Amino acid sequence: MARHGENIRERTDGRWEGRYKVYSDEKGRHLYRSVYGNTYAVVKEKLIAAKLTLKKNLLTGSTEDTGGKSAARACDGILFSEVAMEWLVEKLEKCKYSTYIKYETVYRKHLSDFLGGHPLSEMESKIGLAGDGNILPEISDHLFSDNISESLQKSICCVANQIFRHANQKYGLQIPFLKRPAMKTKRRAIETFTNSERLRLFSTIYNSPDKYGIATVFCLHTGLRIGELCSLRWTDFNFKEMTLAVERTVQRIAFKNSAAEPVFGEAEHGWTISAKDKRQKTFLMETEPKSESSRRTIPLPEKIMGLLDNLNKDEPYIFGGKHPLEPRTLQYRFKKMLEKTKISHRKFHMLRHTFATSCIESGMDVKSLCEILGHSDVKITMNRYVHPTMDYKRKHLETLAGFYGQICGQTA
Predict the structure, then answer these.
(1) In which domain, by residue range, is 69 found?
(2) What percent of the chain has pLDDT over 90?
(3) Which candidate among 201, 244, 258, 284 keeps its CA 20 to 30 Å from the CA of 97?
(4) CA dist., res. 392 & res. 361, Å (int)
(5) Sign of dihedral through CA atoms 155, 89, 78, 175?
(6) Are residues 154 and 203 in the same domain?
(7) pLDDT, tens digit, for every residue of 84-113?
(8) What string of DSSP letters covers 102-166?
(9) How many Å apart are CA 368 and CA 375, to the nearest integer?
(10) How far apart are CA 246 and CA 296, in angstroms?
């Protein structure tokens, strides 16, 4: 059945077909060419890519398959949505699938409806700068409304500007980049578990250690992210050196139609995507760590190594068994653990914050902590966790006063 206005239909053999017009000099008339795929979405991407190829030929002076149209007219016909799709296809090939999904979601939810239908030729004036150096109010009000978080605003800017850069480089345009309005937000202080709460947690876990409790203690001693924790394998440990190598992470992400399965790599991991996951339109994906700096080696205390003896070593994943542990399962079990110990609900990620803050308070240097946490820059660690208490400041000033006192005594 054809999709109105797109010339895409599902064939009787189950495949999808998309048709587009080209001009044949030999026959002196327009002809139709086709692209094929297993899903509607795949064919739509191929169809857009084919049309863009024809338009790019015009821009480079070629008249093949263009129907005699001028290059300027061809550029006028290129929509923002077409360039965005071309950019997304390029990203799907070059970046991590989870990163691609983030880009695709931001584009679809925040840019597609508002800018997608506009030709590139309008973008320079539509995204043009107002006299005060800020983007036009109609753009700012739509993309950067008050109910959108600062983090999401940054993502919208990032995706839009990467699409503009792609258009500028390929089509010789000068579309200005979006500039996100300054937000007057105050960074919230990092919350952590108190000493008494940690004591209650440890007491509960050590009395009857199961894999969820051990995962909790493990996070408090290493600061691992939840995805890193859930994807730990026995092969990541060096029991002789008592170290842990962080090599991967796991997260639940959305399907991208048929593109999800080959990227997922069922054959490589020996898994299958469950029927439940397919109904939920998400799946559990194991990938490389968040960044290159996230790939790290962490020394482990002997006490923590001893806790691992309570776990099954016959299966590859420490906390999951045959497969990585589902992060949502760990979060749910952690919530129940807090209820049992009568501690108010906190996110699992607060264990990482608690670990980092405790390291600073115990005197660890920031550079070491930065590497253990897997931060890309020591400034991130400094800004997020180095907030000394008044007692901590007083202690060091008292030490300094004592040092000065020694000097004065020697002088006398």
Answers:
(1) 8-171
(2) 24
(3) 244
(4) 8
(5) positive
(6) no
(7) 888 988 887 788 777 888 898 899 888 888
(8) HHHHHIIIIIHHHHTTSBHHHHHHHSPBPTTSSB-HHHHHHHS-TTS-HHHHHHHHHHHHHHHHH
(9) 10
(10) 5
CATH number at residue 22: 1.10.150.130
Cβ atoms of residues 323 and 208 within 8 Å? no
Compute the distance between CA of residue 205 and CA of residue 290 in angstroms, rounded to an integer: 29
Rounded CA-CA distance 319/32 in Å is 56
Of the candidates 347, 92, 325, the residue with the CA atom closest to the CA atom of residue 214: 325
134/19 same-domain check: yes
Query: Would you say residue 401 lies in a domain?
Result: no
Q: How far is CA 364 from the centre of its chain?
A: 29
Rounded to 10 deg, the angle between the 350-361 and 211-222 helix axes is 40
pLDDT of 388: 63
| pLDDT bucket at 222, cuts 50 / 70 / 90 | very high
Angle 286-271-273 (CA atoms, 0-180°, nearest 5)?
A: 85
Residue scoring higher pLDDT (95 or 337): 337
CA nearest 384: which of 392, 393, 375?
375
pLDDT of residue 259: 38
User: What are the DSSP E strand ranges found in 276-408?
Assistant: 282-287, 296-299
Grouping H, G, I as helix, E, B as strand and the rest as coil, residue 280 is: helix
Q: What is the chain's length?
A: 412
Q: How confident is the model at residue 132 (pLDDT cuts 50, 70, 90)?
A: very low
Among residues 79, 91, 178, which one has the least CA distance to residue 122?
A: 79
pLDDT of residue 338: 94
Confidence of residue 234 (pLDDT cuts 50, 70, 90): very high
Closest CA to 198 of 226, 225, 221, 227: 221
Q: Are 18 and 47 in contact (CB under 8 A)?
A: yes
- Pair (227, 313) in one structural domain: yes
Residue 168: left if φ>0, alpha if ψ -120 to 50, beta else—which one?
Answer: alpha
Could you read off the pLDDT of 365-395 as tens digits, one per residue? 999 999 999 998 898 888 888 766 666 677 7
Residue 110 lies in a domain: yes
Identify whether residues 26 and 162 lie together within a single domain. Answer: yes
- Residue where the block lists tokens 């239909």: 9
> Rounded to the nearest 5°, which phi and psi values hold at 372?
-65, -40
